[in-house]
Design goal:
The structure is a single chain. By secondary structure, this protein is mostly beta strands. The protein has one domain. Helices cover about 5% and strands about 55% of the residues. The protein is built from two helices and 13 strands, in the order H-E-H-E-E-E-E-E-E-E-E-E-E-E-E. The chain has a seven-stranded mixed β-barrel. A four-stranded antiparallel sheet has the order 6-7-8-12, with no helix packed on it.
Length: about 250
């Protein structure tokens, strides 16, 4: 098993596939990842039978059981290198372990992207409109203030809004390889090979906090259990450069 790096860092457990892999496509994104500690009972209910929630015991998002990834793709390409549809949306994933084994990964359980990305490879996305704003203010190279506003509004009242403001720090470059599973069809997974530059702006485990404002609101039946007011933010990672190759497992 390869040591996991900062990708969803950050703790969604990297692992190396043993079977042959089939290249599926690639993308370059701007991402912000928020690690949350929500109700254990609630999160356990959204993981399918045969799997269990497996919060990481180390790393900047130590102890999180739900990750909210805010994604704004810059470019995307298919397996032949031709331009593909870019992805903009909010995605909810859970760190998981297959019961009775050492197999770990991330499991995508819900998402709110644009209609052309629905239902997505994992079969759990609902169409949503989006609004994304990012502002950077700089008095010097050592004093950079960033503000982000993300808003996704979908069908049936499903919505996620995030307001975030933080002081930028040094970016850490890393490479990682990880499996990500589907909450709707848990035997399906994709393999991600990622290179990124990330800034851990809040980490309870690492005693880092350069976040001056964070507000998360969520609504809808798919989200209300996780975002019931008791959830806690254990970490925030700003990822201004995220380059990913996507593979499917070989036969």
């Amino acid at each position: 098993m390869r040591t996991f790096g900062l990708t969803l860092c950050l703790a969604l457990f990297a692992c190396v596939a043993n079977a042959a892999e089939n290249f599926s496509g690639s993308n370059v994104d701007h991402r912000t990842v928020i690690g949350l500690k929500a109700s254990d009972a609630t999160v356990a209910k959204i993981v399918p039978s045969g799997w269990e929630v497996a919060p990481p015991s180390a790393g900047p998002l130590k102890g999180f059981n739900v990750a909210l990834s805010l994604i704004d793709s810059v470019s995307a390409a298919d397996r032949e290198g031709k331009a593909a549809i870019t992805f903009r949306g909010a995605v909810l994933a859970v760190p998981v372990k297959r019961t009775g084994s050492q197999e770990t990964g991330a499991m995508v359980v819900f998402g709110l992207p644009a209609a052309d990305s629905v239902p997505g490879a994992y079969g759990v996305y609902l169409p949503a409109s989006s609004s994304i704003e990012r502002t950077v203010r700089s008095e010097s190279p050592y004093n950079v203030d960033a503000e982000e506003k993300w808003s996704f509004k979908g069908e049936g009242g499903a919505a996620i809004e995030v307001r975030l403001r933080y002081q930028r720090g040094s970016l850490i470059r890393s490479k990682s390889e990880a499996k990500t599973y589907s909450g709707a069809k848990p035997d399906f997974y994709r393999i991600y090979k990622v290179e990124q530059a990330a800034d851990v702006v809040r980490s309870a485990a690492s005693n880092i906090d350069r976040v001056s404002q964070i507000a998360i609101t969520a609504s809808g039946s798919q989200l209300s259990g996780v975002f019931d007011g008791s959830e806690q933010v254990v970490g925030v990672v700003a990822i201004p450069w995220y380059s990913r190759q996507v593979f499917l497992p070989g036969s």
